[in-house]
Specification:
Length: 206
């Protein structure tokens, strides 16, 4: 079996390293560096997949793009005991899917847009004001979830927490979390995991 993860420094591909470490799967990590002038992925990624973005997973010659798709693929192939995702008929499976995909969709977009607005000098635009409202709404949904249960999909840690991790760690780093936010407690719980510690040791070399 050949399993290769193409990772871009300071990117959401950190989550796939974390997932692989939690799964305990043997894999090869190929590191890519952002272009220092434009801060985007290098052209070499375009030779692997036409979108030219990371993460990219190559499993026995098959190239898989998109973080959510990669996460589900890895769970289907390497989590037969359902340690990191609910069984097909589990009551929390729909909730798991909601947060797994929300991490790349409606929940994440307002945070991503903030990065783009800052990079292009549009912090004071009407779009920025609109996205600030959307970020507040997204954070409200996140906090309501974590006030009701310790992890995104329920009582147990899952890949949904891994997928949500990147943006919430970034929000904390930027001072975007209220002092009394339940996200802080969740961050403490996930950072205590050995898989997260191994991921951080790996990404410290980026």
């Amino acid at each position: 079996m050949s399993l290769v993860l193409h990772h871009l420094n300071r990117s959401r591909s950190e989550r796939l390293i974390w997932l692989l470490e939690e799964l305990g799967v043997d894999y090869e990590l190929v590191r890519h560096k952002r272009d220092p002038q434009i801060n985007l992925a290098p052209a070499a990624l375009g030779d692997i997949h036409p979108m030219g973005k990371a993460p990219l997973l190559v499993h026995d010659g098959q190239v898989i793009a998109e973080s959510g798709a990669i996460a589900l693929y890895l769970l289907e192939h390497f989590d037969p005991d359902y340690r990191l995702h609910p069984e097909p008929k589990a009551a929390n499976r729909a909730t798991f899917y909601e947060w797994l995909h929300g991490a790349e969709g409606a929940v994440f977009l307002p945070f991503l847009m903030n990065t783009y607005l800052s990079a292009t000098g549009l912090e004071d635009s009407l779009l920025s004001q609109y996205m600030a409202g959307e970020r507040e709404k997204a954070l409200g949904a996140i906090e309501a979830c974590l006030e009701a249960r310790p992890y995104f999909a329920g009582e147990d840690f899952s890949a949904a927490d891994i997928m949500m991790g990147f943006q919430l760690e970034a929000a904390e780093e930027r001072g975007g979390l209220p002092k009394d936010s339940p996200v802080h407690g969740w961050l403490e719980r996930v950072r205590a995991r050995e898989g997260h510690k191994r991921m951080r040791a790996i990404t410290a070399e980026d």
